[in-house]
Amino acid sequence: MVSEDVLRTHLQELRRGTVVVASLVALRRPDYGYALLQRLSDHGFPVDANTLYPLLRRLEDQGLLTSEWNTEESRPRKFYRTSDEGESMLNRLLDDLAAVQTSITGLIQGVDR
Amino acid sequence: MNTLTDRYLAATLRSVPTQRRDEIASELRASIEDMVEDRTGGGQDATAAEREVLTELGNPDLLAARYADRRLQLIGPTYYLVWLRLLKLLLSFIPALVGTIVAIVDVADGKGFGAIGPAIVVAMQVAVQIAFWLTLTFALIDRSQTTAGLPEWTVDQLPDVPAHRGVSLADTIASVAMLVLTIGYLPFQHYQSWVHETDGRNIPILDPALWSFWLPALMVVLLATAVFEIVKYRIGHWSWRLFGVKALLSLAFSLPLTWLALSDRLLNPALGDRLSWLADGDNRNTLGAAIAVGTAVILVWDLIDTSTKTRRRTA
After folding, report:
1. Cβ B66–A50 below 8 Å, yes or no?
2. Rounded to a whole number, what is the distance in Å from the CA of B63 to chain A's nearest CA?
3. What is the tens place of the pLDDT at every residue in B36-57?
4. Residue among A15, A3, A20 at smallest CA distance from A54
5. Which CATH number fits domain A23-112: 3.40.50.970, 3.40.50.300, 1.10.10.10, 3.40.1160.10?
6. For residues B140 and B283, is the Cβ–Cβ distance under 8 A?
7. A73, A63, A64: which is closest to A19 by C-alpha?
8. Shortest CA distance to B192 belongs to which of B261, B117, B113, B260?
9. Are A35 and A93 in contact (CB under 8 A)?
10. Labelling A28: which of B37, B48, B112, B208 has CA 20 to 30 A away?
11. Residues in CB range of A25: below 8 A, 6 or more apart
12. A-contacting residues of B 11-30, CB under 8 Å?
């Protein structure tokens, strides 16, 4: 029986990079922090708020996201959107994710045979 | 305006870079309000919801560190191993060296055995200083953005598989140092002991008559033992031949010492003039017997210890 702690650590490691990919995909449609958090979580990417908010700022600093303040609603919110640069990096990341999936599939079949 | 949210924001913003503080504040406040609103919309009490949200966001220092992309470690993996190696290297000899120098200087000042205490204190202070300044330096290097050009590890750095399994360098150094100190003490006590004549002249502890033969002989035996320790280290492990030589050397030192102590020829008779306790013949005999027994116990213990090591090695 694998201990819960060990399992959690490995799952965390596995999920770590996918949050960036998921955010870049989701922000093709502009959104603000908490709404993005909920969307990600609805699609099976549960992220901690204290991870996601700083991450958005970091991606913005790296030029992968652009942002705009929206003051029309009840409270001012900062909307993020995936930039062109972010889009091209996202494509590289998605290719790599697909490659990982292909490799794993190939490996599983190879072992099974 | 001193709600939990205000306090949380203040605590978080304290340690994020100033130029982005206002923007992070507005965004984080909006996010917190969004989160609280979402919970109160589900029928939860506003105060409880606020507590829950802030608890979920966690320690503000941690959140601020994530915003500032700051590392939460003193010395990261890039420098940790270099730091550790340097620390071990410096601590392996500098405190002992400084302590020894202090002890020698104090002894030269005539403080005798009282010099050991201050020397140990100084050695410990030196060790703490080394650890502190080295760690501080590395913590600063770790925080500077530039990566110092650390030499890459190569296979050539692999140490030899230790050949000296049975005999460690530290033990050898300690033994030789003790022997050298003892050799040095024999002439030293002749000029500098803790007992003085009424006119201030020094009274040697050991009988000066022994200089005609026994003390030089004991010094030669001790010197031979020091040479033996070095040879033993070079060979690297115990053998029955080494055990034999060691036993001979130990006996060559212990037997004369015991015999001199038991026949009341070891201590300077002049000591009795100054220390009334030693003037009494019975007391002198008791002291002589104690020295003899102590020497014998050390001898036997040493031989048992050495034979155990030898048997383990040759088994």
Report:
1. yes
2. 6
3. 988 888 888 888 889 999 999 9
4. A20
5. 1.10.10.10
6. no
7. A64
8. B113
9. no
10. B37
11. A82, A90, A94
12. 20, 23-24, 26-28, 30
Cβ <8 Å between A76 and B57: no
ipTM for the predicted complex: 0.82
Of B26, B31, B63, the CB nearest to A34: B31
Rounded to a whole number, what is the distance in Å from the CA of A37 to chain B's nearest CA? 10
Chain A residues with CB within 8 Å of chain B CB: 32-35, 38, 48-51, 53-54, 57-58, 75-78
A75/B33 Cβ within 8 A: yes
Q: Quick: pLDDT tens for A70-95.
A: 888 778 899 999 999 999 999 999 99
> Is the Cβ–Cβ distance between B99 and B120 less than 8 Å?
yes
Determine the pLDDT at residue B1.
58
Per-residue pLDDT for A102 more than 90? yes
Phi-psi region of A15 (alpha: psi -120 to 50; beta: other; left: phi over 0): alpha
pLDDT tens track for B104-151 = 777 777 666 666 778 888 889 999 999 999 999 888 888 876 666 677
Q: Residue B196 has what DSSP assignment?
A: B
Q: Assign B233 a pLDDT band (cuts: 50, 70, 90).
A: confident
Q: Where are the domains of chain A?
A: 23-112
- Compute the nearest-CA separation of B37 from chain A (Å): 11
Give the pTM. Answer: 0.57
Query: In chain A, how many H helices and how many E strands?
Result: 5, 3
CA atoms of B27 and B57, how far apart (whole Å): 14
Rounded CA-CA distance B64/B71 in Å is: 11
CA distance A60 to A27: 12
Distances (CA, A) of B174 to A81, B164, B230, B243, B303: 69, 16, 11, 19, 18
Residue B9, exposed/middle/buried by CB under 10 A (0-12, 13-18, 19+)?
buried
Q: B186: Cβ–Cβ under 8 A, 6 or more apart, which residues?
A: B206, B215, B218, B219
Q: How many CB atoms lie within 10 A of CB B111?
A: 15
